[in-house]
Amino acid sequence: MRIHVATDHAGLELSATVRAHVAAQGHEVVDHGPVEYDALDDYPSFCINAARAVARDQAAGVEALGVVFGGSGNGEQIAANKVQGIRAALVWSEATASLAREHNDANVIAVGARQHAVDEVLRLIDVFVATPFPGEERHARRIAQLAEYESTGAIAGHEIH
Ligand SMILES: O=C(CO)[C@H](O)[C@H](O)COP(=O)(O)O
């Protein structure tokens, strides 16, 4: 699995720990920055670049997921979700980590570096990466509706106003 990682200053230290952890499990890690601490850096471009790389890889048939960090993870999730084809989930417990995959087929996990102990974050990421999307019809149907809205602005058979 290729794992694309991005953060901002708030998650930089944690990002290094997570990248080493994930690489030690045999995954290929691609870091989208930042490369050094700058308390005034801005998360959008880092997270959008990671999300674009996930979308590109998946479109090419490469098994890939993304991990984005920030202080809360909120802005990072929002940034990643601006990229077509990305389903970024803000994860804050083992249950939301597994549900993000099982129900949402999330391809990016957003985590708040200031909200958890390091061990907890590693566990959230492990659960997210290890959990498959079983493809249950009702979940696949809802995900397809999101994709349809993303590309057409409409959802066939549903009123959008
Ligand atoms: O979580 C974030 C966005 O959702 C950012 O990491 C957070 O807003 C950065 O805050 P500050 O500039 O005060 O360190």
UniProtKB/TrEMBL annotation:
GO MF terms held by the record: ribose-5-phosphate isomerase activity
Pathway entry: Carbohydrate degradation; pentose phosphate pathway; D-ribose 5-phosphate from D-ribulose 5-phosphate (non-oxidative stage): step 1/1
SUPFAM superfamilies xref list: Ribose/Galactose isomerase RpiB/AlsB
Pfam families, per database record: LacAB_rpiB (PF02502)
Domain of life: Bacteria
UniProt keywords, alphabetically: Isomerase
BP terms from Gene Ontology: D-allose catabolic process; pentose-phosphate shunt, non-oxidative branch
EC number: 5.3.1.6
Cited InterPro entries: Rib-5-P_Isoase_Actino, RpiB_LacA_LacB, RpiB_LacA_LacB_sf
UniProt binding sites for D-ribulose 5-phosphate: 8-9, 71-75, 104, 114, 138, 142
UniProt keyword annotation of Isomerase present: yes
Reactions catalysed, as given in the entry: aldehydo-D-ribose 5-phosphate = D-ribulose 5-phosphate
UniProt feature coiled coil, ranges: none
Subunit comment: Homodimer.
Family statement: Belongs to the LacAB/RpiB family.
Protein name listed in UniProt: Ribose-5-phosphate isomerase B
